[in-house]
Amino acid sequence: HMMRRWLFPILASLVLSAGAYQATLLATPYVLMNGAMKKIGARGPENRFAFGQMATADNQPIVRPSPDLSYSTCVYNLADGPVLIDVEPVPEHYWSVSIFDARTDVAAVRSDRDTGGKPARLALVKAGQKAPAGYAPVRLEHDRGIALIRILLADAGEFPAIDATRRKSTCRAL
Known about the structure:
The chain is an alpha+beta fold. It is built from three helices and nine strands. It has helices at 2-41, 112-115, 159-166; strands at 50-51, 69-77, 83-87, 95-101, 106-111, 120-125, 136-139, 144-152, 170-173. The strands form two sheets. A five-stranded antiparallel β-sheet has the order 1-2-8-4-5, with helices on both faces. The protein has a four-stranded mixed β-sheet with strand order 7-6-3-9, with no helix packed on it. It starts with a helix and ends with a strand.
Protein backbone atom coordinates (compact mmCIF):
# COMPACT_ATOMS: atom_id res chain seq x y z
CA HIS A 1 0.00 0.00 0.00
CA MET A 2 2.78 2.40 0.91
CA MET A 3 4.60 1.69 -2.37
CA ARG A 4 1.52 2.39 -4.47
CA ARG A 5 1.08 5.78 -2.84
CA TRP A 6 4.58 6.85 -3.93
CA LEU A 7 4.53 5.31 -7.39
CA PHE A 8 2.66 8.16 -9.16
CA PRO A 9 4.76 10.99 -7.64
CA ILE A 10 7.98 9.14 -8.51
CA LEU A 11 6.87 8.46 -12.09
CA ALA A 12 5.62 12.06 -12.51
CA SER A 13 8.97 13.37 -11.23
CA LEU A 14 10.87 11.17 -13.68
CA VAL A 15 8.74 12.31 -16.62
CA LEU A 16 9.06 15.99 -15.65
CA SER A 17 12.82 15.64 -15.16
CA ALA A 18 13.25 13.97 -18.55
CA GLY A 19 11.16 16.70 -20.19
CA ALA A 20 13.15 19.49 -18.51
CA TYR A 21 16.40 17.81 -19.54
CA GLN A 22 15.29 17.57 -23.18
CA ALA A 23 14.03 21.18 -23.19
CA THR A 24 17.39 22.34 -21.82
CA LEU A 25 19.28 20.36 -24.48
CA LEU A 26 17.15 21.89 -27.24
CA ALA A 27 17.22 25.49 -25.95
CA THR A 28 20.85 25.84 -24.84
CA PRO A 29 22.45 26.27 -28.32
CA TYR A 30 19.91 28.97 -29.27
CA VAL A 31 20.40 30.84 -25.98
CA LEU A 32 24.20 30.72 -26.32
CA MET A 33 24.14 31.87 -29.96
CA ASN A 34 21.67 34.65 -29.18
CA GLY A 35 24.07 35.94 -26.51
CA ALA A 36 26.99 35.76 -28.96
CA MET A 37 25.01 37.60 -31.64
CA LYS A 38 24.11 40.36 -29.15
CA LYS A 39 27.74 40.77 -28.08
CA ILE A 40 29.12 40.70 -31.62
CA GLY A 41 26.19 42.73 -32.97
CA ALA A 42 27.06 45.54 -30.57
CA ARG A 43 30.22 46.06 -32.66
CA GLY A 44 28.28 47.01 -35.80
CA PRO A 45 25.04 46.68 -37.78
CA GLU A 46 23.65 43.42 -39.10
CA ASN A 47 24.83 42.21 -42.52
CA ARG A 48 28.12 44.06 -42.26
CA PHE A 49 31.54 42.82 -41.14
CA ALA A 50 33.05 44.25 -37.97
CA PHE A 51 36.85 44.21 -38.09
CA GLY A 52 38.30 43.92 -34.60
CA GLN A 53 41.81 44.47 -33.35
CA MET A 54 44.03 41.53 -32.47
CA ALA A 55 42.87 39.74 -29.33
CA THR A 56 44.62 40.54 -26.04
CA ALA A 57 43.83 39.70 -22.42
CA ASP A 58 41.82 42.95 -22.23
CA ASN A 59 40.21 42.71 -25.68
CA GLN A 60 38.49 39.41 -26.44
CA PRO A 61 35.84 39.92 -29.13
CA ILE A 62 34.95 36.23 -29.22
CA VAL A 63 35.07 33.38 -26.71
CA ARG A 64 38.59 32.03 -26.24
CA PRO A 65 40.28 33.87 -29.12
CA SER A 66 43.67 32.78 -30.39
CA PRO A 67 46.31 35.55 -30.09
CA ASP A 68 47.74 34.71 -33.55
CA LEU A 69 44.42 35.02 -35.41
CA SER A 70 42.74 38.13 -36.75
CA TYR A 71 38.93 37.95 -36.48
CA SER A 72 36.20 39.62 -38.53
CA THR A 73 32.55 38.99 -37.65
CA CYS A 74 29.18 39.56 -39.28
CA VAL A 75 25.84 38.94 -37.61
CA TYR A 76 23.68 38.13 -40.62
CA ASN A 77 19.91 38.32 -40.97
CA LEU A 78 18.07 36.65 -43.86
CA ALA A 79 14.64 38.05 -42.93
CA ASP A 80 14.67 40.38 -45.95
CA GLY A 81 16.37 37.98 -48.36
CA PRO A 82 19.75 36.40 -49.10
CA VAL A 83 23.01 37.75 -47.67
CA LEU A 84 26.19 37.72 -49.75
CA ILE A 85 29.59 37.05 -48.17
CA ASP A 86 32.70 38.00 -50.17
CA VAL A 87 36.02 37.16 -48.51
CA GLU A 88 39.15 38.77 -49.90
CA PRO A 89 42.01 36.24 -50.06
CA VAL A 90 45.09 36.99 -47.98
CA PRO A 91 48.15 35.86 -49.96
CA GLU A 92 50.58 33.51 -48.22
CA HIS A 93 48.41 33.23 -45.11
CA TYR A 94 45.93 30.66 -43.89
CA TRP A 95 42.44 32.17 -43.73
CA SER A 96 38.95 30.76 -43.41
CA VAL A 97 35.34 31.87 -43.28
CA SER A 98 32.82 29.90 -41.22
CA ILE A 99 29.05 30.31 -41.28
CA PHE A 100 27.30 29.45 -37.99
CA ASP A 101 23.51 29.18 -37.78
CA ALA A 102 21.26 30.20 -34.87
CA ARG A 103 21.70 26.73 -33.33
CA THR A 104 25.54 27.08 -33.32
CA ASP A 105 25.86 24.52 -36.13
CA VAL A 106 28.52 25.14 -38.76
CA ALA A 107 26.65 25.52 -42.05
CA ALA A 108 29.71 26.11 -44.26
CA VAL A 109 33.48 26.63 -44.15
CA ARG A 110 35.78 27.86 -46.92
CA SER A 111 39.50 28.52 -46.65
CA ASP A 112 42.46 29.51 -48.76
CA ARG A 113 42.95 25.80 -49.45
CA ASP A 114 39.47 25.55 -50.98
CA THR A 115 39.58 28.68 -53.14
CA GLY A 116 43.08 28.39 -54.65
CA GLY A 117 43.90 32.02 -53.93
CA LYS A 118 40.57 33.36 -55.16
CA PRO A 119 37.90 35.09 -53.05
CA ALA A 120 35.33 32.99 -51.20
CA ARG A 121 31.87 33.95 -52.46
CA LEU A 122 28.95 32.58 -50.48
CA ALA A 123 25.22 33.33 -50.71
CA LEU A 124 23.38 32.66 -47.46
CA VAL A 125 19.88 31.57 -48.50
CA LYS A 126 16.76 29.96 -47.09
CA ALA A 127 14.54 27.41 -48.80
CA GLY A 128 13.11 28.77 -52.03
CA GLN A 129 15.80 31.42 -52.48
CA LYS A 130 18.50 31.24 -55.13
CA ALA A 131 22.14 32.24 -55.04
CA PRO A 132 23.24 34.76 -57.67
CA ALA A 133 25.67 33.59 -60.36
CA GLY A 134 29.20 33.23 -59.04
CA TYR A 135 28.12 32.54 -55.44
CA ALA A 136 28.04 29.15 -53.74
CA PRO A 137 24.71 28.70 -51.95
CA VAL A 138 24.71 28.03 -48.21
CA ARG A 139 21.21 26.85 -47.29
CA LEU A 140 20.08 27.84 -43.80
CA GLU A 141 16.97 27.03 -41.76
CA HIS A 142 17.23 30.10 -39.50
CA ASP A 143 17.23 33.81 -40.37
CA ARG A 144 20.12 34.79 -38.11
CA GLY A 145 23.63 33.60 -37.35
CA ILE A 146 27.28 34.63 -37.49
CA ALA A 147 29.87 34.66 -40.28
CA LEU A 148 33.42 34.55 -38.90
CA ILE A 149 36.64 35.20 -40.83
CA ARG A 150 39.92 34.04 -39.28
CA ILE A 151 43.36 34.94 -40.63
CA LEU A 152 46.55 33.38 -39.23
CA LEU A 153 49.43 35.82 -38.63
CA ALA A 154 53.06 34.77 -38.19
CA ASP A 155 53.59 37.76 -35.87
CA ALA A 156 51.69 40.84 -34.69
CA GLY A 157 53.77 43.12 -36.93
CA GLU A 158 51.87 41.76 -39.95
CA PHE A 159 48.56 43.07 -38.66
CA PRO A 160 48.48 46.48 -40.45
CA ALA A 161 48.97 44.88 -43.90
CA ILE A 162 46.52 42.07 -43.13
CA ASP A 163 44.00 44.57 -41.76
CA ALA A 164 43.99 46.54 -45.02
CA THR A 165 43.35 43.35 -47.03
CA ARG A 166 40.67 41.87 -44.77
CA ARG A 167 38.66 45.12 -44.81
CA LYS A 168 37.95 44.42 -48.49
CA SER A 169 35.73 41.50 -47.40
CA THR A 170 32.00 42.22 -47.32
CA CYS A 171 28.81 40.90 -45.78
CA ARG A 172 25.71 42.48 -47.35
CA ALA A 173 22.05 41.90 -47.98
CA LEU A 174 21.22 41.16 -51.60
